[in-house]
TrEMBL record:
Predominant place of localization: membrane
Record-linked PANTHER family: SLR0882 PROTEIN-RELATED, YJGP_YJGQ FAMILY PERMEASE
GO cellular component: a single term: ATP-binding cassette (ABC) transporter complex
Organism whose genome encodes this protein: Aminivibrio pyruvatiphilus
A Pfam family that the UniProt record links to this protein: LptF_LptG
Keywords: Cell membrane, Membrane, Transmembrane, Transmembrane helix
Membrane topology (UniProt): Multi-pass membrane protein
Name of the protein this chain belongs to: Lipopolysaccharide export system permease protein
Transmembrane segments: 21-48, 68-86, 107-125, 284-304, 311-330, 342-364
UniProt subcellular location: Cell membrane
Length: 369
């Protein structure tokens, strides 16, 4: 038994060594494909058409890179397992292992464990590094490329409030200083039955004692005929808005700049306004599902690698591209169904993983026979 366990340990290390080289090749190759297809074109456009300096473009490239690398991890897992098991099959090593009484599902163990580690790494990166780098890239585009003001000042903030799909109120802030808890040039439009019924204007808004207060404002009535009549002026009036300054600031942040935790908090806040949250819920569940595509595609790649024993790096790369394309087409289709409300968000997000895991399990069973 000790000798057999030692053999299994040697087998795991051998397969992991074979996988690691192909995995690094896959990450590099797929990253270069994405970089050449998107980032380099964007960089060239900024430098040639907008005259952006090389240092700014280089920083933008570095900030965008983590998101690209995170996208390539499942692809690299697929490619590495496919090439590794194709090589093992070509050299008759799989035949020798089966002859020694080692089943295929046991040979898959290091692939499974390694891909789980890749999935955990992708999940951790998507929760920490990727949102941070996306925010940095967005700020770089705003404040150095577009020459806007720094992020201490949030401009042109819109807040929509809906009830059962019917618009109730729109709040527009020309400026928001979240750290100071102040607003400037506030416009509030209130609706009844989808019709604009009241407009409130205020020069300033201030956060105090857990509440928003408007200062120096005026309220207008909008008649059914579209006429605007002044109702009253006020020096100080409470604004019914159950959001803190930080929450108001986050309400206009892009989902790509949020972690899953922040996205979940955002969903909880927006649910109070009666919005259609299906797209955000699908995005939240995709954040959890996509990292585990590394495990699914690695198992599928290993199972297909046994059958494509003559697949070299070129053929393996092409086959991997086709499988990844099929995966993302499936994901896009199920995502659209989830966002339209035909599928529960969690089901829509996990359908691609379940479907491709079933396909990989089918081929693994055939390879085990």
């Amino acid at each position: 038994m000790a000798g057999k366990g030692r053999t299994f340990g040697l087998l795991d290390r051998y397969i992991l060594k074979e996988l690691s080289g192909s995995f690094l090749f896959g990450v590099t190759a797929f990253t270069m494909v994405f970089v050449a297809g998107d980032l380099l074109f964007q960089a060239a456009n900024l430098m040639i058409e907008q005259g952006v300096s090389l240092s700014v473009v280089t920083r933008l490239f570095v900030y965008r890179l983590p998101e690209v690398v995170a996208m390539t991890l499942p692809m690299a897992s697929l490619l590495s397992s496919l090439l590794t098991f194709s090589r093992l099959s070509t050299n008759s090593e799989l035949v020798a292992l089966k002859a020694a009484g080692i089943p295929f599902h046991r040979i898959l163990r290091p692939v499974f464990l390694a891909s789980i580690l890749v999935g955990i790494g992708a999940l951790a990166g998507n929760e920490t590094l990727v949102p941070f780098s996306n925010r940095a890239a967005e700020n770089l585009m705003k404040f150095e490329v577009m020459r806007e003001k720094p992020s201490l000042l949030k401009e042109k903030v819109f807040l929509r409030e809906e009830s059962r799909g019917v618009l109730q109120r729109v709040i527009y802030l020309d400026q928001l200083k979240a750290r100071e808890g102040t607003m400037k040039d506030v416009i509030i439009q209130e609706f009844e039955g989808g019709r604009l019924s009241r407009i409130s204007l205020a020069d300033n808004g201030i956060w105090g004692d857990g509440e928003w207060w408007l200062q120096d404002g005026q309220v207008f009535e909008v008649t059914r005929e579209g006429r605007v009549n002044p109702l009253l002026r006020f020096q100080r009036q409470k604004l019914q808005l159950n959001l803190t300054p930080a929450q108001v600031e986050k309400a206009s942040r892009k989902p790509s700049e949020m972690s899953s935790t922040e996205l979940l908090v955002q969903i909880a806040l927006l649910s109070k306004e009666g919005r259609n949250l299906a797209p955000l819920k699908v995005m939240f569940h995709l954040r959890l599902a996509l990292p585990w595509a590394s495990v699914v595609l690695a198992v599928l790649g290993a199972s297909l690698g046994v059958r494509s024993s003559r697949a070299g790096p070129g053929i393996g790369f092409g086959l991997s591209v086709l499988i990844v394309f099929a995966y993302y087409v499936t994901m896009s289709f199920s995502r659209a169904l989830g966002e339209a409300g035909y599928l529960f968000p969690a089901i829509a997000a996990w359908i691609p993983n379940v479907a491709f895991l079933l396909v990989g399990g089918y081929f693994a069973r055939r390879a085990n026979g």
